[in-house]
Amino acid sequence: MNHSEQIRIASAEPSKKFFTETLPRDIALSDCVLDLVDNSVHSLETTLGLDVSQHYFAATKPPRIHASVDIVFDASRFRLTDDCGGISTADATDVVFLFGNPVKEKTQAGLGVYGIGMKRAFFKIGRQIVFISHTRQEEFRIDIRVEEGEKSKEWNFPFKYARPRQTIEGGTVIEITELHSTVSDQFASKAFSRILQDKTKKAFALFLKAGLTISINGDPASPDVPELAESRNLRPVRHLLKKDGVDILIMAGLSPKADRTPRGWYVFCNGRMVLEADKTEQTGWGSDSHPLFRSKYNHFLGYVYFRSREVQKLPWTTTKEGVDRASPVYQAALAEMRLLSRPVLDFLNDLYPDLKEESEPEHALLKEAMAVSPHRIAGRRNSVFLANVKKEAGDDLVSIQYKRPKKKLDKIREALGRARMSASRIGEHTFDWFYDRNCN
After folding, report:
1. Which segment of 27-36, 93-102, 290-299, 355-364 scores lowest on mean pLDDT?
2. CA pair distance 262, 293, nearest whole angstrom
3. CATH node for 16-220
């Protein structure tokens, strides 16, 4: 090298505008709010040593949580208050406000994964952030003004105060003002509140069932976890496996006959739902070995629970609104999901040999089954899908469905002298009448 040549260094410093404007662009506002709830739930898990999905794997009683997260927003401000244990000044100094999670040891648990969710949510929502937190021994406050941070060479968030404090329980307050105009419009919308309520009751369903209270503008979210159909002759499959330090529990079967909601696969990572009623290629539908989801599969119901203290190995995305399909852990689970769900789909193919017909023996089996909590199925040993269908000797029964004008049905009732005869019974009567006269 020529000594006259100067050694140059190519700058690799990230632009602050990337974090404040670009990074939040591709995530929905509702998901940003859920990221802030994740922060509260993670504090709760850290403080209590809580693992809300452990009882699914260990066949133990579900934990009871006595904590709350209260979210209030309007067109001018956003505020989240929780009593979930709070954050220590040490974690605030070294971990919580870093862009990227530096913690990799195996003792880490909970919902903190990539170290970007909370900061991305701040920048998505507004320009002025107040973060106040206290544990049982100490408290601190940090004020973040985004415009000042963008102008500064360093990007540090100085404490307004950090001092001892003796309390019975810890908690956190996040208040965001100077909202972005698009955020202000959404926060003023009733439709947004409904969307957020719906996402909350699904994403945190296991925590809500365990007793955590999450309120949105004063309206508590109720858990949304569909139940499986079970009887002595109809039982879901239950299978537990391990892959690269991750526990994987798979259950699949049918939703009860009275459940009219089209189901699919429900996927959880450390108790947090990341896929809800999925019917896409993400969970194997439409692959070489699996059909596309159709209405005949509406009663299919599957659960996959991933659990690990090494949260980086869990197959969730940065938004926790999907799965990393390239993950070796997820690929192992997906292969089992396809294999274990095949008998369930075969049953549904027999139940609905034609979209307009329903096989009577399979129908009777599903109709007699009771709704059972997934937790009850999870607590058992590994088992295969059971559907003990009772067939009539030498004859398969099918349901016949068709529509006719109500006025004509009323005339038949009048002719038969049966004013309250049901439409289905009229169909059976007329079928038998025709058969007896023309086919016997």
Report:
1. 93-102
2. 10
3. 3.30.565.10
Number of Cβ within 10 Å of residue 221's Cβ equals: 25
pLDDT-based confidence at 113, cuts 50/70/90? very low
Q: Write down the pTM of the prediction.
A: 0.82
Average pLDDT over residues 302-313: 92
| 54: its two tokens | 């452990």
To which residue do tokens 């919902």 refer? 111
Residue 326 is classified by DSSP as T
Q: For residue 150, count other CB atoms closer than 10 A to its CB.
A: 15
| Spatial distance between the Cα atoms of 32 and 321, rounded to a whole number of angstroms | 11
Are 108 and 310 spatial neighbours (Cβ–Cβ below 8 Å)?
yes
Distance CA 19, CA 33 (A): 17
Q: Rounded to whole angstroms, how far apart are CA atoms 265 and 334?
A: 11
Residue, of 215 and 431, whose pLDDT is higher: 215
Tally the residues of the chain: 440
**Where does residue 342 rank: exposed (0-12), middle (13-18), buried (19+ CB within 10 A)?**
middle
Domain with CATH 3.30.230 in the chain: 228-387
* Positive or negative torsion for Cα 308, 309, 312, 316: positive
Query: What integer pLDDT is reported at residue 322 of this predicted model?
Result: 86
Residue 169 has pLDDT above 70, yes or no: yes
Give span(s): CATH 3.30.565.10, the chain: 16-220
CATH architecture classification, 228-387: 2-Layer Sandwich (3.30)
User: What is the DSSP secondary structure assignment for residue 23, as one 8-state letter?
Assistant: G
In contact, 125 and 180? CB cutoff 8 Å: yes
